[in-house]
Structure formats: C-alpha cells, structure tokens
C-alpha cells in the first residue's frame, strides 16, 4: 500500500515535471561525461596493459651506429636485464602506388627464427616474411589501411641506393607503434609514414649489416628501475656510436599515449564536477520554492505527528528522485558516449583489441557524486522545512519587504518603461538568486570556451611554426651526415629555388643534477627558411658562443640566461664541453636547442657537414622533384610542408571539432535548464502579480516581457562573465598541455567567443519560449483566488 508521503512525492514530481526534467538532464549530462570519459580511459588502460604484457613491450631502448652481434651477450649480462632484442632499423624513402609524394618507410628487422624477445609483432592478416625471400615484408595496419595495401600489394623502397620492390605478405602491429609517428612528428600521417617489418638476413644484406645491429630493445626483471640499466648500457655501447639509451617513459609512442590518458583523466573530473555543481543549484532553487509553496502542507504534516526529520526526508527524497532520473538516463548515455570516444581513439592508438568498457568504478563514482550533489542542493531547503514550526507553517509567508534602491533614489527608474522597472526592482530585491543564475549560465558558456580552446591553441602552434619559424616547402633528412658541399648537389634537382643546410646531433644537456637528452640543431646565422622564433619573444639569432634553448627545456633544467650548461655529444668525438645560455625562446613544438652550424661541426670534430636541407621549390615542378627524390639513396625522409598541414587539419577535424560540439551540446542543456527553471519558478512565485497586471490592462506581450525579460537580462550579463570563466578554466588547463612534444598557448580566437555565446543565447531563447506557452494559458481567476 502506497503511503501518503509517497503519494505526495509522486504528485509533486508530476506537477513539477518540467523543472524536474531540466535538473535531471543537467545531472544526466554530467554523468554521461563522467561515465563516458572514465570508460574510455579504462578501456585504453586495459588495452595498453594487456598489449604491453602479451607482446613484451620493451623497458629500455637504444640506437647506435653499428655493433657486432656478440655485444648482445654483454648486454644480457647487465644486472636486471631479462631479455635482449638486437635489431636493424633504417628509415628509407619509398614509393607507394597511387601516391605522388615520397613516403618515409621505417624498416625493422625480424629474427630469422622465432618471435622477437621484445616488441613482438601481432599479425592481423597473412604471414611472416620467409627467410628464403628478400623482398617480403609485413606492413603496419594503419599504413596499409591509409594506402589501400593488402596482402600481395607491392611498394618500392630505396635500400642502400637500390630501388627494390617489396611484397606485402602480412599486415600487423607492434606495441612499439601504438601511436605511429616518425621522428620529429607530433600528429600521425599514415599515408606518408609507415613501418615495415622485414627478415633480419634480408635487411642486413641490403645495408651491409651482416653479423651486426644498430638498435636494441631490452626487457627488465620485475621491480628493476630502468635508470639502473640505462647508465651501464650507455657506457657499454658508447664505443659503437650509441645515440643514448632511454626508458619506456621517453619512448615516443608510449609518451603520447600516457599524455593522452592524463588528459582524459582530468577531463573526466572537472567537466562532470561543473555539471553537478549546476544541478545542485537547480535543486536548491526548485526545493526552496517547493518548501515555500507547501508551507501549509508542512504544517499539517507536523500537526498530525510527523517529525521534522520525517518532513526533511520527504524533500530529500524529492531531490534524490530527481537525481535518480538523471542517473537512469546518464549511465546508458555515458556508455554510448564512451563507445564513441573509444571509436575516435582507435584512429590514433592501435591495439589488437580495444573495446569500450562500462567502468564499475565510474558507475559508483557517478552515483556517489550525483547523490552528494543532490544532498548539497537540497540541504538548505530540507533544513528549512525541518525547522518550520507548525503554527508558523499554517500562516502564509510574509511578503518580501521593499526599500527604495539606488536606482529609485537617483530617479533613474522613473525614466524607464514599467516592464523594465519591474525587472530591475525584482533583481535588486533578490541579488543572491540573480548571481547564482548568472553563474550557472556562465559555467555553461565557460565549458563551450574550453571545448574550442584546444583547436585555437593548435591553430596558434601552426601559425607560429609554419608562418614564422618554417618558411620552406620541403625538408630532406639524410640517412647519414653529408659534407656541406652536398647543398650544391641538391641545387641541381628540378624546381629548387633556395637551399639551406642544417646539422643535428643528439646530446645530453646537464645542469647540476638535472639532465635531458635532446637534439642540438646547428643553423646558419643568416638562415631564412628556418628561424628560431618564440611565441612572444620574437626572433633569436643563433651564435657560436652559446646556446639558444626552448623555455620549456630551460625550466626542466632550471636554467636562466647566462647560466652555463654542460653539453655531451652522442656522436662524433663524443666531446663534453660547456656553453652559456644566451637566450630562451618560448617555442611551442619540441625541446629546441640551437647553435651555429659551423660551430657544431667543430664541436663534433668534423669538417662542415649537414644532416639535411630545407628547400624552397617551384610548386609547378613539384611532381618532377618528388619523382627524383624517391630514387635518391642518401635521403631517409622527405617532409612536405603542404602534406604536414593537410594531415594536421584532418586530425583536428576528427578530434577537437567533435569534442567541441559535444561540449557545446551539453553546455546548452545547462543554459536551457537554468533559464527554464528560473522562469518557471518566477512564474510560480509571481503568478498573482502577473495575473493582476493582466487584469489591470497589461497585454500578454508586456507581461511576458516582465517574466522572460528578467532571464534575458541575466543571460546577457552572464555571457561575458562566461567568457571570463572559460578563460580562467583554459588557464588552468594550460599546464596539462605543457608537454615536451608541444605546448598549447592560452589563445582564444573570436570565433570561439561567438561559438560559446550563440548556442547559450539560443538555448535560453528556447527555454523562454517553452515557458511562454504556459503563460498564454494562465488561469487569471484561479491565480487571483490564491491566498496571500
């Protein structure tokens, strides 16, 4: 049998169903984000852990010039080393069918017998290369998909000066390339960069590496700190041209995946928190009004023997029921949202199995957080209902007192139309409620700003990198450093308008007990095609007597201008020397360290040399140039400016645009919920007043202006406040995007401000129109009979 209080609760929920639904939708949005993002995070973590374990992802990596195969036994003897996989790894240019530009192919050797000890290959289709064949390869799944390659397809690669047709006999993936990018890349370009696994003997024969290796991956015993192995490994491989060993945390693919997981975790925390904060406000406003309207009912309940605790529980149940509706809608919506997010992440992070999971932890957290929000929102109203004495409750609430405000005293209100005068007076009487309403809308606008912040930041990175730093059309990376005179050979290629060489050498920079492995770039002082330019610090001149370094790198090493930093070269004579820091540059990509090119060659103990060239070309002769570049043996990589921008543009369309639209939709729900609730409560509270105005001859339009105009005024005031809130939230997020690979600056474009305000204004308009329909059907006689 249904109790009287339960019938009362059901009646209240149905009578206030519009407002309950608005508050529940806000709760549902918060839970959707929480469950979806936590589910996506957990899905990635589970896939990562399983893949790393099942396919023995390495703990330590090292690249070198050349070492005899017997060195593997010495590496294996190092304390803590469990497994050693020596390999041959080379980047070469390639020709992919149907694609005019040169592709960069990374060739990785596979053992002739058995599976690799580390970074084992997961074969999706086909077979492993036959030891008896020298032209068979396994292609990475994303490279194959981007270029339409299947088992039996062929690609052309330049192996040590010889163009060779390679047949794809299998398609697979490796834990080493969960995020498949090449050297110096931030965003993947799967059409122009791909990994091919080839038999060890075939690759050794092509590059004269028989009985040798140039890359090694180690797995370690459990609980062994990689730093205990990296030092001894570096010393052991130093005489073989080691470029520096590094741990898993610095491995390119793993670092990108780890950074992304960190961002998901933060998003899954602060966005739901904002939604639940707004839902608390909505519940507070709704229950406060309900307590006011039901004063007589509360008095009767207490008069019939119900305790204050029982009455309080009645209204708390109302809040919990509202949140319960949000939970019931938010959990399945969150699971679906998580599936969409996982589908998006599959385009960037490649696992054998990546399935969306419904996280039990997220479900528990969603229920607890939303319940807490309901209790906080209902708390004040519940306390008020519990303490209301029966005799006082039976009397109508005293009308609010009126005092002339500042606008009345200075006579400004007399010059205003009556509807506007009534609106301003009502706002002045309840400033706290007005501020809370504005904050709810402002939070929603701030969320929309945050949704576009990443896109604006990346656009600023591109504007800096490709508008002020890089002015070249094509960059060529040589397989090995070439004499500086190679510039004159490049000039002979078709369509070349300008050539500038650069030298790159891996180094360790040390300051005190801090150290960082980076690439030291040597540029000509009069370089035009590639300049050292900061986001706010402008252009910096490289020189031979000191280093210009990234501000991020300087902060990592605790360096300031004038400090001396110890430089240890990882190639050439492997000299160690110190240089002063002459300038820091707030660049936005990578950890840059720059010096004069000729000075770098002197430090390396070599004749002037270059690692690559920047080119400005005649675009009408680009096809002819690309055709020649595909056949040049000394080139390992060709980077085309137009292609990089195109790839980044596609990436942004798939990520930031989608995420910003999702956040805009959720934030619009907040605005609509806040405005709808406020107008409905105002209609309930001021029904007698509005009906009186209608009887006195005010038109429906004038009465609607008074009711809806108040919320329109609050919304208009909340929009710029929301921009400020969004700016503050973005400022809090800047450290999250402060990575070694890239830094997103605090930049907001005008279109972002419009994007944030227009949906909010439209949502408020829709909410106002919904309430306007109720105003049209207002029963004047029934309202005027209401007891004051």
- How many E-type strands? 22
Q: What general form does the structure show?
A: elongated
Which regions have little confidence, pLDDT < 50, spanning 5+ residues?
A: none
Largest sheet: 6 strands, mixed, barrel
Radius of gyration: 34 Å
Q: What proportion strand?
A: 15-25%
- How far apart are the first and last residues' alpha carbons, in Å? 36 Å
Structural class, by secondary structure, is: alpha+beta
Give the count of helical stretches: 24
Assign a percent range to the helix content: 40-55%
How many domains would you count in the coordinates? Answer: 4
Give the rounded overall mean pLDDT.
83
| Lateral arrangement of strands in the main beta sheet | 3-4-9-6-8-7
Keywords: Cell membrane, Membrane, Transmembrane, Transmembrane helix
Transmembrane segments: 20-41, 264-287, 318-342, 362-386, 434-455, 656-676, 712-734, 754-772
Protein name: FtsX-like permease family protein
Organism: Cupriavidus campinensis
Describe this structure in words.
- The chain has 788 residues and is of the alpha+beta class.
- It has four domains: 200 residues, no CATH class; 198 residues, no CATH class; 188 residues, no CATH class; 122 residues, Beta Barrel (Barwin-like endoglucanases), CATH 2.40.40.
- It has 24 helices and 22 strands.
- The chain has a six-stranded mixed beta barrel. It has a six-stranded mixed β-barrel with strand order 13-14-20-17-19-18. A four-stranded antiparallel sheet has the order 2-10-1-11.
- β15 and β16 form a beta hairpin.
- α9 runs antiparallel to α10.
- The longest helix is centred in the middle third of the chain and has 42 residues.
- It is elongated.
- The protein starts with a helix and ends with a helix.
- The model has no long low-confidence stretch (mean pLDDT 83).
- Belongs to the ABC-4 integral membrane protein family. LolC/E subfamily.
- Pfam families: FtsX (PF02687).
- It is a multi-pass membrane protein.
- InterPro entries: ABC3_permease_C, Lipoprotein-release_system.
- Its main location: membrane.
């Amino acid at each position: 049998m249904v109790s009287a209080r339960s019938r009362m609760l059901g009646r209240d929920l149905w009578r206030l169903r519009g407002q309950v639904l608005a508050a529940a939708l806000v709760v549902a949005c918060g839970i959707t984000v929480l469950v979806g993002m936590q589910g996506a995070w957990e899905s990635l973590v589970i896939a990562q852990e399983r893949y790393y374990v099942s396919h023995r992802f390495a703990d330590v990596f090292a690249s070198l010039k050349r070492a005899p195969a017997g060195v593997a036994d010495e590496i294996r003897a190092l304390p803590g080393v469990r497994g050693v996989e020596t390999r041959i790894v080379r980047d070469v240019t390639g020709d992919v069918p149907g694609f005019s530009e040169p592709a960069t192919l990374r060739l990785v050797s596979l053992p002739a017998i058995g599976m690799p000890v580390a970074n084992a290959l997961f074969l999706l289709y086909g077979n492993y290369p036959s030891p008896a064949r020298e032209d068979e390869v396994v292609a990475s799944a994303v490279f194959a998909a981007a270029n339409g390659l299947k088992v039996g397809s062929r690609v052309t690669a330049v192996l040590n000066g010889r163009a060779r047709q390679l047949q794809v006999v299998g398609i697979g993936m490796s834990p080493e390339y969960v995020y498949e990018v090449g050297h110096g890349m931030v965003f993947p370009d799967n059409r122009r960069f791909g990994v091919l696994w080839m038999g060890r003997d075939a690759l050794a024969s092509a590059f004269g590496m028989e009985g040798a290796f140039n890359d090694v991956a180690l797995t370690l015993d459990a609980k062994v700190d990689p730093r205990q192995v990296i030092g001894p490994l570096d010393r052991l491989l130093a005489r073989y041209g080691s470029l520096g060993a590094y741990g898993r945390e610095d491995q390119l693919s793993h670092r990108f995946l780890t950074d992304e997981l960190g961002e998901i975790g933060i998003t899954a925390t602060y966005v739901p928190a904002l939604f639940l904060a707004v839902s608390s406000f909505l519940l507070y406003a709704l229950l406060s009004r309900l307590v006011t309207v039901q004063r007589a009912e509360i008095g009767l309940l207490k008069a019939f023997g119900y305790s204050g605790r029982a009455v309080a529980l009645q209204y708390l149940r109302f809040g919990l029921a509202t949140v319960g509706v949000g939970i019931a809608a938010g959990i399945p919506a969150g699971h679906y949202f998580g599936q969409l997010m996982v589908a998006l992440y599959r385009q960037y992070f490649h696992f054998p199995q990546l399935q969306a999971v419904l996280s039990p932890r997220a479900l528990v957290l969603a229920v607890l957080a939303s319940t807490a929000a309901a209790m906080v929102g209902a708390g004040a109203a519940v306390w008020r209902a519990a303490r209301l004495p029966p005799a006082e409750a039976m009397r109508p609430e005293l009308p609010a007192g009126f005092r002339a405000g500042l606008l009345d005293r200075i006579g400004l209100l007399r010059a205003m139309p009556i509807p506007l005068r009534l609106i301003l007076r009502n706002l002045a009487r309840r400033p706290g409620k007005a501020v809370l309403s504005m904050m709810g809308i402002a939070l929603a606008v701030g969320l929309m700003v945050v949704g576009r912040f990443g896109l604006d930041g990346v656009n600023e990175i591109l504007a800096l990198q490709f508008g002020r730093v890089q002015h070249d059309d094509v960059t060529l990376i040589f397989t090995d450093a070439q004499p500086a005179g190679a510039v004159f050979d490049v000039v002979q290629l078709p369509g070349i308008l300008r050539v500038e060489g650069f030298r790159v050498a891996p180094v360790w920079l040390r300051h005190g007990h801090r150290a960082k492995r980076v690439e030291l770039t040597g540029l000509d002082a009069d370089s035009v095609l590639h300049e050292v330019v900061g986001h706010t610090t402008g252009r910096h001149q490289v020189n031979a007597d000191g280093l210009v370094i990234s501000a991020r790198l300087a902060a990592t090493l605790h360096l300031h201008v004038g400090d001396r930093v110890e430089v240890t070269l990882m190639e050439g004579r492997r000299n160690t020397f110190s240089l002063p820091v002459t300038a820091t540059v707030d660049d936005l990509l990578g950890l840059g360290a720059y010096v004069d090119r000729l000075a770098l060659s002197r430090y390396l103990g070599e004749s002037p040399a270059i690692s690559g060239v920047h080119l400005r070309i005649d675009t009408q002769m680009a096809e002819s140039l690309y055709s020649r570049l595909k056949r040049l043996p000394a080139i390992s990589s060709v980077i085309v400016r137009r292609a990089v921008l195109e790839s980044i543009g596609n990436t942004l369309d798939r990520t930031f645009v989608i995420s910003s639209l999702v956040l805009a939709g959720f934030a619009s729900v907040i605005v609509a919920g806040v405005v709808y609730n406020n107008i409905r409560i105002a209609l309930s509270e001021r029904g007698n007043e509005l009906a009186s105005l209608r009887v006195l001859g005010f038109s429906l339009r004038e009465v609607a202006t008074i009711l809806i105009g108040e919320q329109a005024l609050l919304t208009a005031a909340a929009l710029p406040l929301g921009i400020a809130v969004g700016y503050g939230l973005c400022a809090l997020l800047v450290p999250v995007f402060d990575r070694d690979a890239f830094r997103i600056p605090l930049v907001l474009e005008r279109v972002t401000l419009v994007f944030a305000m227009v949906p909010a204004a439209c949502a408020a308009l829709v909410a106002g129109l919904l309430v306007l329909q109720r105003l049209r059907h207002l029963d004047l006689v029934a309202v005027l009979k209401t007891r004051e």
